[in-house]
Write a structure and sequence with these properties.
The chain contains 16 helices and 22 strands. The chain has about 550 residues and is of the alpha+beta class. Helix 12 links the parallel strand 7 and strand 8. It comes from Rhynchospora breviuscula.
Length: about 550
């Protein structure tokens, strides 16, 4: 019966002359079992020769074409269509689950922030339980447009004679910053100061430090939209009470820093009567040189470190831009004003000269002075397992940029990018840079991004060596939320680094969420924001520096 079916198949394929005598099982036997006459059982002499001579009469290409024409294609195509449809359905389900996980992560982050504010408010109320509460509202709630526009700067403090908040607008910023420290530690080296200085922010107009400002006036008369005037939004900081604590952060292993640091600490303590706070490493170095520096304070554990923003009035950095980045990373919430002295290489964020530290710090402590609000990005990694376990990682704040690259993988990075609920693009290249405007002169600039004034409210979207000639960098508004996801069909994994450190691996299915953080870094200006920015790109990058064309006089 099987031989008959094979003969019918051969006739349909145009091989009617072939009459195979062996089944596939017989042909799979060992060659040694075949007798000399060509038969597995020693019979049917000359069958193999007959098969060979008959098959040679047909063209091999015709046989292949006939075989392919006979193969049933319809079931295979149907199976492929079902697999594609099933894959698309699973992708839709995965996206829906991803949105649910991201929504829960955002809600958890918001709840944690409110819990932190509640705990700080509770601690403050316990310390002031014997004081009389003022019935009036607090200035940060009663002021008008100016205070609303500065509401993002949570380092804003109330006036010295107002200690309580009206509570009508939630927890005011001075409640977060003005709380006193918990029970003091016995060791004087780890004793934190009890109260924080207050200050007020105001607009400057045309470089005048008079606190006055112009408003943007938009006219809709006769259906036309016109802007009558524009304001010079240079922000000024004015102390309302004397600063009490200065936090000094230095670049490690620098001979210049070791030479100037003891002098600055001694001058602040003896001439300005200001408490000095340093990192534990630096305090040990100072005490190793001279026991005079026993008055220098530091922190003992991570709990004290988390409360730095409630005790520090001013941050002084001695180093380069990397030292400023490190100083910003120590504050997971609001950041005090930062005075950056240039002891590094380029110095885009370090306008002050270390040789003139007495004059510079004297003017800063006296006030008022101009500041630049440098926005930070809040980044959070959401693992693929979060769809089921609902586990999210701690948010990371970056001042320059977050970089997603291919790491040690030889494959191109494959990333899906979304802006709010809109699809942006798929990145195929070496990676992607999501940068603040302060970081526009760093890695983003090297990758072809534009240089942007640090007070421009924007997020930079810069690809790294994209495998596309049309992939140009973007500048997006500050209020958007970016999501970068490694798709499931990515050939390799990706790596994310935050301000050049805290490197994290992103596996297929993992996502990185980036948005503007509510806590900017206020850096003191030598002159003002624009002058300092232009000076930095002229001196640091020699921007547009070329030999001028010669003048040969007017033509004859």
């Amino acid at each position: 019966m099987e031989k008959k079916e094979r003969r019918n198949l051969g006739s349909r394929l145009g091989l009617s002359v072939i009459s195979p005598a062996f089944s596939p099982e017989e042909l799979m036997q060992e060659p040694s079992s075949v007798a000399a006459n060509g038969s597995p059982n020693g019979t049917e002499n000359g069958r193999l020769e007959t098969i060979g001579s008959s098959a040679s009469t047909l063209s091999s290409s015709d046989s292949i074409k006939a075989a392919y024409a006979y193969l049933p294609q319809t079931p295979i195509r149907s199976t492929d269509a079902h697999l594609i449809e099933f894959s698309e359905a699973m992708r839709t389900v995965a996206k829906a689950l991803r949105r649910v996980a991201e929504g829960k992560a955002a809600a958890q982050a918001e709840a944690a922030e409110w819990k932190r504010k509640y705990e700080l408010e509770k601690a403050r109320n316990l310390q002031h339980k014997n004081e009389e509460l003022e019935p009036e509202g607090c200035p940060c709630c009663m002021n008008g447009t100016l205070e609303d526009s500065l509401n993002k700067l949570t380092v804003h403090d109330a006036s010295s004679d107002q200690n309580e908040c009206c509570g009508n607008h939630g927890i005011c910023s001075h409640q977060v910053l003005g709380d006193e420290a918990p029970a003091p530690i016995v060791n004087s080296a780890y004793k934190m100061v009890a109260r924080k200085a207050s200050f007020r922010l105001s607009w400057g107009c045309n470089g005048e430090k008079n606190g006055q400002h112009k408003h943007d006036v938009v006219s809709f008369e006769k259906g036309d939209i016109t802007t009558a005037s524009r304001s010079n939004k240079q922000i000024l900081l004015k102390w309302e009470t004397q600063p009490q604590t200065v936090f000094i952060i230095t670049k490690p292993n620098s001979s210049e820093v070791r030479a100037i640091m003891p002098e600055m600490v001694r001058w602040l303590n003896e001439h300005q009567k200001i408490n000095v706070l340093v990192e534990p490493r630096l305090r040990e170095e100072l005490l190793a040189d001279d026991s005079y520096f026993d008055f220098v304070q530091t922190w003992e554990d991570d709990d004290d470190k988390k409360l730095l923003h409630t005790k520090v009035d001013l941050v002084v950095t001695l180093g380069g831009d990397g030292t400023v980045l490190w100083a910003a990373s120590l504050f997971k919430g609001p950041v005090p004003p930062v005075v950056a002295f240039a002891l590094g290489s380029l110095g885009f964020m370090t306008p002050f000269h270390s040789e003139q530290y007495r004059e510079s710090l004297g003017n800063i402590i006296k006030g008022p002075f101009s500041i630049t609000l440098r926005n930070r990005l809040q980044c959070q990694v959401i693992r693929d397992a979060a769809k089921d376990e609902l586990e999210t990682e701690e948010p990371i704040l970056v001042l320059n940029e977050v970089t997603i690259d291919r790491g040690i993988s030889s494959y191109l990075t494959y990333l899906e990018c979304y802006c709010d609920s809109s699809f942006v693009t798929c990145v195929q290249g070496d990676g992607l840079i999501i940068s603040t405007t302060s970081g526009s002169t760093a890695y983003s600039l090297a990758a072809g991004g534009s240089m942007v004034h640090p007070q421009v409210p924007a997020i930079l979207f810069t690809p790294i060596c994209p495998h596309s000639l049309s992939f140009r960098p973007l500048i997006l508004p500050e209020y958007v939320t970016l999501r970068v996801q490694v798709p499931y069909n990515s050939r390799g994994q990706a790596w994310a680094s935050f301000d050049g450190k805290d490197r994290k691996q992103l596996a297929p299915g993992d996502a990185l969420i980036c948005s503007m953080a509510p806590w900017p870094v206020p850096t003191a200006c030598l002159v003002d924001s624009t002058t300092d920015f232009l000076r930095s790109i002229h001196e640091g990058l020699h921007w547009n520096l070329r030999k001028s064309q010669s003048f040969d006089g007017p033509p004859a």
